[in-house]
Amino acid sequence: MAKIYLHHWIQQFDAPKYAKAVEVTINDQSIFLPGGDPPTPQVGFRRSDLIPATNNGTDITVQGSTTFHWSVRNDPERPLNFSHEYHPVWHETADFGTSEITFLTGKPFSQSNDPTVHDPKTLRLAGRQSNHPETTFFQTPFTFDVWHNFAVTLGWESNLLTVYYSRDHDPLQRVAGPTFNNNSGGGQFHVGILKLPTGPEGIDVVHQGFQESNLNEGLVYGGVFIEDSSNGCITIS
Fold this sequence. Notes:
Helix content is 0%, strand content 41%. The chain is built from no helices and 13 strands.
């Protein structure tokens, strides 16, 4: 179980639509129960996320070239624990086997899989999750009390990836790519929090590991939308 809150903070892409920021939270009951017979709770994770209603894994959001937008900021009343690895955003393949991209913060569960990460309080955009080590295309300090604006363009046939970033109300700037990334597999865009456990390398992180009790953690999101970029169009402000 988790709660979703509307917030007063205004993000630049939300303002013209009179949209509101939303906070996704996790607590001790935020345990994902996937399908299966019988279903097996993912007790290693704490997880709460949102998926666009029309994003079924093979729809138009995974055809041609697509840009995924999101902005994120901390909530001082629901701080994260940066001794854990978090996935606030990811695009999971339709077979649930991996992710084409993962947006991360916190201490990597496996330092060998993220060798370029030396500060847990960073925001990072990594490529295909099944790569070992993962390719981190961009990272920036997770400065508190400001909006961090991201956009990632994925070419579903070209296997190209481009990353854009800015802070607060500044226009997005290209910070990585276009460069190769294995974008095969279609799938779904997730926005929320997936918190990995701590524990020794080699454990089954989905079902094992340590999570603290009495969790009350959250991240605030704004400017979440998906656009067709097959014609090269990218909204930057």
